Amino acid sequence: MWLICYLAPLLPCYSATLTRPVLFLEIVYNVIGPILIVVGLGVLVDRRFRPDPRALSSAAFYVFVPALVVDGLAHTDVQSEEVGLILLAEIVLTLILALLGWGVARLLGYDRQLESAFMLAVAFINAGNYGLAVNEFAFGEAGLQRAVIFFIGTGITGNTLGVFLASRGTASIRQSLLNTLIVPLPYATLVGLAINLGYTTLPVPLDRALTLLGQAAVPVMLFNLGLQLSRTSFKGKVKPLLLATLIRLVISPLLAWPMILLLGLSGLSRQVTLIQAAMPTAVSTTILAAEFGGDTEFSSAVVLISTLASAVTLTILLAVIM
Prior knowledge:
Structural class: mainly alpha
CATH class: Mainly Alpha
Radius of gyration: 19 Å
Order of helices and strands: HHHHHHHHHHHHHH
Number of helices: 14
Largest sheet: none
Oligomer: single chain
């Protein structure tokens, strides 16, 4: 009975969805399909030319994504209160999932390196190179604006807590904390907010350059996702992989739903936040693991499995809420 009450607000949408099975195909064709094509191109290019994905990852991490954040925050027309609620929802959800991941890892006796990788896998959401594209195709420019705000939240948590968790697998706590100070996204967030609130302005050439770089961020990240997935191995640790995928794709949106209701998010902001909460594991977990000595094999495998499985889970969730 508790489950029925818990999911009751979604039941009318779900009932309507059952009468429109063609909606599933429309979502796959219009929303998921274009994303899979770009990711697939990345896989094909990697198989044929074997480019260095780390170089593209670094470019995205230090240039394209910060530009997207500055540009997105500087020009968003989402109300400031709404911005705060979306950010709060993401940060609280990440902390809850990190604690859940830590508890599960401790309960199952994972070693410290796998424990850190497991926590990263369940807590950090691919709200960028996957989530931005899904929300833009599903909800248009207004959906993209809200998705960028959620993504900024993942950037804040990922580049602070995420860096700490990735580092603690092999580094000291002091070094792990110092590593959180060298990543650019928190600083890009402050710049974007300062522009949006009118504390500063940018020269026109710089503003337009940031817009161009920001527009490149999503395709670059999707393509790089394909490069990363092409080199992923399934060797070993099958149970932790499947468990992390289950938490990321199913448990995460179930935890997010009551929090979204409690915060009072409604309309498009509610839909975008729920969809973002159901995204697969962030590619940045692999980047963080590579940069700071984490379990890159496990991180890459979770990214691959959760990304493939999300084609099904996200299609179902989109059909329910749209």
